[in-house]
Amino acid sequence: xxxxxxxxRYKVAKRGQDVALRCDPISGHVSLFWYQQALGQxxxxxxxxxxxxQLDKSxxxxxxxxxxxxxxxxxxxxxxxxxxxxxxxxxCASSPGGPAGANVLTFxxxxxxxxx
Amino acid sequence: xxxxxQIPQYQHVQEGEDFTTYCNSSTTLSNIQWYKQRxxxxxxxxxxxxxxxxxxxxxxxxxxxxxxxKNSSLHITATQTTDVGTYFCAGPAGNTPxxxxxxTRLSVIA
Lengths: 116, 110
Hints:
The complex is a heterodimer of chains A (116) and B (110).
Chain A (H helix, E strand, L loop, with lengths): L4 E3 L2 E4 L5 E6 L6 E7 L6 E7 L2 E4 L8 E4 L6 E5 L8 E8 L10 E2 L3 E5 L1
Parallel strand pairs in A: 2-11
Antiparallel strand pairs in A: 1-3, 3-8, 4-5, 4-9, 5-6, 7-8, 9-10, 9-11
Chain B lengths: L3 E4 L2 E5 L4 E7 L6 E6 L6 E6 L5 E4 L2 E5 L5 E6 L8 E9 L2 E5 L3 E6 L1
Parallel strand pairs in B: 2-11
Antiparallel strand pairs in B: 1-3, 3-8, 4-5, 4-9, 6-7, 7-8, 9-10, 9-11
C-alpha cells in the first residue's frame, strides 16, 4: 500500500480482556517495528522484525505482550489480560531494510488503546 | 540502559523567533535521525545524519551532528505556526535498533 496501515485506530478494552492490533506495512518493506507511546512521551521500542523473523523483542514489557509476522508482511501485536497501564498509542513502522540501527522509519497512524 | 536525552522538554516561542533542541547520547552513535510529530499525529521522518560534524539544511531547519557523534541539534530559524509539534531525535542504542528521546514540544504563539 501507499503507507503503513494500522487497525483498529481506537480500541477500548475492559481490564483483563485480550486485544489484537494489526499493522499492514508498506509493500516490500523488509523491516517492521512496534513502539508504544504513552501520552506526552516519546515512542518506546517494543519489538522488531526482519521479514518473518523477530530479531529483537527486548522492549516487550511482559509476557502478556506477543507479536508475530508469520508471512513477513502483516504483523499483529497481541496483548493478553490487558491492564490499565497498557493504555497507550501503539505505533507500527516499516522500513525497506538494511542495518537495523540505520533504518529510516515510516510510521502508521497508530492504534490508541484505552483499558478501563 | 542506553538513552538518548533531549532538552528542553518544552519550548514556547513567539512566531518569528528561533528555536533549538538538543540531543545527547552517552555513547557514540552510528547515525542520528530526527522526527516531527504534530499534535494528534504520528512521527514523521525529517532527516538522518551519519557523518561526524555533518550539517544539513531543510529550508528554515538546520540539523547538526557533533564531532564525537554523541550529540545533535535541530535549529529552526524564524518559527512559524506550522512548526508546532514535538521534535524527536532517535538513534541506535546497544542492540536496540532505534531509541527515541522524550522529545521537545514546541509551541508557537502567533
